[in-house]
Amino acid sequence: MTVFPSALTFSNSSRARLGRVLVLALLLALPVAAHADDPPPDELFKLGNEAFSNQSYDKAIEYYQKCVEKRADFKEAWYNLGIAYGRKKQYEKEIEAYQKAVEADPKYSKALYNLAIANEDKGEEDKAIDFYEKVIDAEPKAVDARINVGILYAKKGRLEKAIAVYKKAIELEPETADAWFNLGIAYGRQAGKEADKAAKEKLIKQEIEAYQKAVEKNNRYHKAWYNLAIAFNKLGNIDEEIKAYVKAVEIKKDYPQALFNLAYAYQEKKDAANAIKWWEEYVKIAEPLPTEKKFVDQGKQQLEALKKAQGN
User: Fold this and answer.
1) Is residue 245 a part of any domain in this protein?
2) 60 in a domain, yes or no?
3) Could you give the dihedral angle defined by the CA atoms of residues 138, 133, 112 and 19, in that order, rounded to the nearest 10 degrees?
4) Residue 93 covered by a domain
């Protein structure tokens, strides 16, 4: 059997904080007059945004703080203050600012989402789940939040819950490759726990179908091609396994795990010429990488044995 490096973990390309984009729309709706000595909250908000845009984060924080001192329920100012603190890597203050935004509006989905991410970053996964669920309650079509909370459910072994969440995300946005990809991983993990042979095979087929959907939605999704290959291997389908690895390395030429497994797959197929070709490519790519050391040693052994058998 092929010896695989660890299969890829759950993925969400959209797991960036929403705070990367400031709240600016309010400025268009509320024109204000400048007051040099005592500017009103809206003007302070505008000045904070201008300072932030100029990467003057300390100044932005100063303006946003003055803004919320004058209007404690100014949720957009609290939210932008959280972003500014995040840019300064002052994460506790960042979280406090988002919490203030949520106090002003318990259904403020942008702040709830960033609170979920911040707590996830701290390892507070249960709190993160709670905030993601609040995002979904406030904004039922929030697909990113559904994918992220599904990942956390899966990490906690709540695979049925994760699968239900991914399916709902797919129902809302069928073109979302990340949702299909993570659904495939969840099915694969279920299969790994299944003792009944028929039930296990059914889950692996569902895993394959999910990865196939992921690459249908995003044909450049090298991680999905890689995991698709592993799933085909579970069913003993070496030809489809090889095709999927080839696609993965076409997209990402310096992909050591896929190169390693592709060489092994050709070796299992008794195709020595291609096995040698891909072992050589793997060793060239992986040898400089400390994380690949034990696999490089294994690859060199396989390569040497194949060449010796070929009389090279």
Assistant:
1) no
2) no
3) -100
4) no
Query: CB neighbours of 248 closer than 8 A, spacing ≥ 6?
Result: 222, 223, 225, 226, 229, 255, 258
Residue 216 and residue 278 share a domain: no
Tell me how many domains the chain contains.
2
Kindly report the CATH number assigned to the domain that includes residue 202: 1.25.40.10
* 213 and 264, same domain (yes or no): no
pLDDT tens track for 100-141: 999 999 999 999 999 999 898 888 999 999 999 999 999 999
Tell me what pLDDT residue 312 has: 67
Residue 219 covered by a domain: yes
Domain shared by 196 and 268, yes or no: no
| Residues 226-240, mean pLDDT to the nearest whole number | 97
For residue 31, count CB atoms less than 10 angstroms from its CB and return exposed for 0-12, middle for 13-18, buried for 19 or more: exposed
Domain holding 157, by residue range, is: 140-234
d(CA 230, CA 69): 56
